[in-house]
Write a structure and sequence with these properties.
The chain has 3 helices and 11 strands. It is of the alpha+beta class. The protein has 2 domains: about 30 residues; about 160 residues, Immunoglobulins (Immunoglobulin-like, Sandwich), CATH 2.60.40.10. Strands 1, 2, 3, 4, 5, 6, 7, 8, 9, 10 and 11 form an 11-stranded antiparallel β-sheet that branches. It is globular. The N and C termini lie far apart (about 55 Å).
Amino acid sequence: MVEMKVLLPVAIATLALLVSIVSLYVSKLRPGKLKLTAGEHVAISHQPEGPVNFILPVNFSNAGSNYLTVDRVALLFQQRGNPEGYLLEPAFYLTLAESGSFTYESLSVPITIFGGENVTKQIMFNSSAERPAEFQMTKAGTYDLFLLAWIHGSPQPCVSDDFSIVVSEAHAATLVKYIGEKSLNSVKLPQSKWRSWDAHYCKAIEVDNIKKS
């Protein structure tokens, strides 16, 4: 009984110390942990001289307690089945104007994200003038996209989000038309996993399935 009276306070004190250490780690010491999430849609347009532009909303979240800085982002895309691809660089951060069109917010700069917080940016990615005819998204098919980010001065991308989009024959024809007109109009495409959730008429069985999910 005497030993129990001695050990119980020691156990309680040890437990309290462990809880304090864990709490300190979670709230103050846990390293920053970045997660990238690409938005539902990507808008594709072409500059008059040919290179392609992608406008993509990107959410940066930090699951750690310490801040982190995203030095750079980039976007890689490939037509499915083609081993080659194209790396697009960030040109501008955009914002939506009252008219509903995009306006320039700033040049692409590093983003600091504090612990437990998130930041969303509309990013315009540009291709270069190198071999523009091969990477204009003017061919119908499925394209795989890989969103990359660099943190802590790393020369290699540290995290990524990957998704795909489907360019239909109609979308491809529209993009070719815009290129011929040297128009900056864009085509908006959803990620493939969201295509079935585009606005459409729903039959009774589909309504029931949605409501049960």
